[in-house]
Design a protein that fits this description.
With 266 residues, this protein is α/β, with parallel strands linked by helices. It contains 9 helices and 7 strands.
Length: 266
């Protein structure tokens, strides 16, 4: 307000969305959507644990956050390696005391016709997206159960609902993640743990660089997305904070689509 007065109730409003004192593990957070979500969670007050396979890159990101007086640390492991996950989660709990928020974001892509996938290529995509979420969640849930509190957020995709060609393995994995969200919401809800998902549309990151460089696909974005543009990584951050904060305490088993209106326009 221009006269220097505070907005009535603003303190309670900010408290509802604050993540102060919370520890958030975000997989695949060295760049792209994961980095955008992790940075926003840190700005909301969380101690963010950055995850990926490149420890040096993660440490540089963590230092970037600390230079802004934000809390961050690193847990470098491959989300398909059960032993490495167990060690990373254990070390995080020993260092931070607990894990309040888990964002399963790690993922890969391999665009090619369905009949040309090898079994190994198929398993690698499904293994990273679906098995990775299973393995990391399985490692974190016991700590949440012990505290009877926790927030799990799965990063799915509109590909689980609106599919384009040459991404069958990715679409299958993301569709399965949506089912996993609902199953965990029902099973873990009685223990004070919520599970929700976010289904992003097309966002401008390294993950979609090939599409961004395709003139025809850019025309598709401008013509078919009602907002007429690509999403920005930082635009997922507020949704993560909402679902992880007390403001979203009664949201459970929901998939929040963030796509500029693309699915609605189908």
């Amino acid at each position: 307000m221009g006269d220097g007065q505070s907005i009535p109730g603003s303190s309670a409003l900010l408290d509802a969305f604050a993540l102060t004192g919370k520890v958030a593990l975000v997989t695949g957070s060295g760049r792209g959507l994961g980095w955008g979500m992790a940075r926003f969670a840190a700005q909301a007050g969380a101690h963010v644990v950055l995850n990926g396979r490149d420890e040096a890159a993660l440490r540089a990101r963590a230092e970037e956050l600390r230079s802004e007086s934000l809390a961050a640390s690193v847990a470098a492991f491959d989300v398909t390696d059960a032993d490495a996950i167990a060690a990373g989660v254990r070390a995080t709990v020993e260092r931070c005391g607990h894990i309040d928020i888990l964002v399963n974001n790690a993922g890969i892509q391999n665009r090619k016709p369905f009949h040309t996938y090898t079994p190994e290529e198929w398993r690698r995509i499904v293994g990273t997206h679906l098995d990775g979420a299973f393995l990391v969640t399985r490692a974190v849930v016991p700590h949440m159960l012990a505290r009877r509190s926790g927030r799990i957020i799965m990063i799915g995709s509109i590909a689980g609902e609106r599919v384009r060609g040459t991404i069958t393995a990715y679409a299958a994995a993301k569709g399965a993640l949506a089912a996993l969200v609902r199953a965990l919401a029902v099973e873990l809800g009685p223990h004070g743990i919520t599970c929700n998902g976010i289904a992003p549309g097309f966002f401008a990151t390294d993950f979609t660089r090939t599409l961004q460089e395709d003139a025809a696909f850019n025309r598709y974005i401008s013509e078919r997305v009602p907002l007429g543009r690509w999403g920005r990584p930082e635009e997922l951050g507020p949704a993560v904070v909402y679902l992880a904060s007390s403001a979203g305490a009664f949201v459970n088993g929901h998939i929040l689509t963030i796509d500029g209106g693309l699915v609605a326009a189908a």
